[in-house]
Design a protein that fits this description.
The chain is mainly alpha-helical. The protein has two domains: 88 residues, no CATH class; 173 residues, no CATH class. 47% of the residues lie in helices and 9% in strands. The chain is built from eleven helices and seven strands. The strands form three sheets. The protein has a three-stranded antiparallel β-sheet. A two-stranded antiparallel sheet has the order 1-2. β6 and β7 form a beta hairpin. α7 crosses α9 and α9 crosses α11. The N terminus is likely disordered.
C-alpha cells in the first residue's frame, strides 16, 4: 500500500499544511480551529509539543520578528521561509540575505517554474516529429487549436499510465530487481510529459518540489521518495497479479524474492535517476 505519512498536520481540524511555518501560524491562532470528525480535542500547545522540539510553544508565541516595535530583550527572530530561530536581529538579517537556503531555492524554483509550459511544449513537439502520440487521461488534457498545445500536469500520485504497455510491464516483472523498479519509475515520470510532476532542487537539500492540488509545493525529499518507491512498487504488484498466469515459475520466484528489498537500498539510485533525467530533459 502507499505510504500516507502526514507532516504539518493539525490533529484537531485534520488540515495538512504545505510547510511548517504555515503550520506554526495555524497553532498561534487566537481561537481554536473547528474540531473535525475523528479529530482530537486537544490544545494547540499539545499539538506543538508533538511536532516541534526546537523551541517551546510559549517562547515561540511570545517572540516577535524584527518588524515589531515591542521592545523585548528576550525576543526571538524567526525566518518566515525556513522557520529557523535566531537570537539577534543582525543574525536574522544575515541569514535572510546570505544563509537561508530555502529562500534562495524558492526564488530559483519560481524562475524555473515560469518556464514550465515552454519546456513541455518543446517536448510535445519533439514527440510529434517522431510520430509518437501520447494518449493522456485523468487530469491531463491535450487541446489542439490552430497549432497551439495546452497541457496540464498531473498531480503527484495521480499520474497517467496509459503509455505503460503490457510488453514493458512484462519485461520489468520478469527481470525484477532494483534497476527494474527504477526503470519503471523513470518510465512513469519522464516518458509522459504530463507526469513531470517532481523536481529535485539538488542532491544535498532535504526538500524537493512536487505537483499537488494543481500547484507546486515544497515537501520533504525523503518522504516523497519513500512514497514514490512504494507507490510504483504497488503499481507493479497490481500488474503482476494480472500477468501472473502468463509467467514461468522461475520468473515468479525471482519477482517474489525482490519484494524483501528495503526502500533505503534504492532511494539514492532513484534520486540520481531523477536528477539525471530532469537535467538532460530540462524538466521542471
Amino acid at each position: 500500500m502507499e505510504q500516507n505519512i502526514q507532516m504539518n498536520f493539525c490533529n484537531r481540524c485534520k488540515k495538512d499544511f504545505p510547510d511548517k511555518y504555515k503550520f506554526k501560524r495555524h497553532l498561534l491562532r487566537k481561537n481554536l480551529c473547528k474540531l473535525a470528525k475523528n479529530g482530537e480535542n486537544i490544545s494547540y500547545k499539545k499539538i506543538w509539543e508533538k511536532n516541534f522540539k526546537d523551541v517551546s510553544f510559549n517562547d515561540y508565541k511570545n517572540s516577535k520578528t524584527p518588524n515589531d516595535t515591542n521592545k523585548n530583550n528576550n525576543k526571538l527572530f524567526i525566518c518566515k521561509n525556513c522557520g529557523e530561530i535566531l537570537k539577534h536581529s543582525s543574525s536574522y538579517y544575515r541569514h535572510i540575505k546570505r544563509s537561508c537556503k530555502i529562500k534562495s531555492k524558492l526564488e530559483e524554483m519560481k524562475k524555473e517554474i515560469s518556464e514550465q509550459n515552454d519546456l513541455i511544449h518543446q517536448l510535445i513537439n519533439l514527440k510529434k516529429e517522431q510520430n509518437i502520440i501520447y494518449n493522456t487521461t485523468n487530469n491531463t488534457q491535450n487541446i489542439f487549436n490552430q497549432n497551439n498545445i495546452n497541457i496540464s500536469l498531473n498531480n503527484f500520485g495521480e499520474e497517467d499510465l496509459s503509455h505503460i504497455t503490457e510488453t514493458f510491464l512484462t519485461d520489468i516483472i520478469t527481470h525484477m530487481n532494483k534497476m527494474a523498479l527504477i526503470k519503471y519509475i523513470q518510465q512513469v515520470h519522464f516518458s509522459n510529459p504530463s507526469n513531470t510532476n517532481i523536481k529535485l532542487l539538488d542532491d544535498k537539500t532535504k526538500f524537493m518540489m512536487i505537483r499537488k492540488n494543481n500547484e507546486w509545493i515544497l515537501d520533504n525529499k525523503n518522504i516523497v521518495l519513500d512514497g514514490m518507491i512504494n507507490m510504483n512498487m504497488d503499481r507493479i504488484q497490481q500488474a503482476y497479479k494480472i500477468l501472473e498466469n502468463k509467467l514461468e515459475d522461475a520468473e515468479k520466484v525471482e519477482y517474489s524474492d525482490y519484494s524483501n528489498n528495503k526502500i533505503e537500498e534504492i532511494k539514492e539510485d532513484t534520486e540520481n535517476m531523477i536528477l539525471s533525467n530532469q537535467n538532460s530533459l530540462k524538466i521542471i
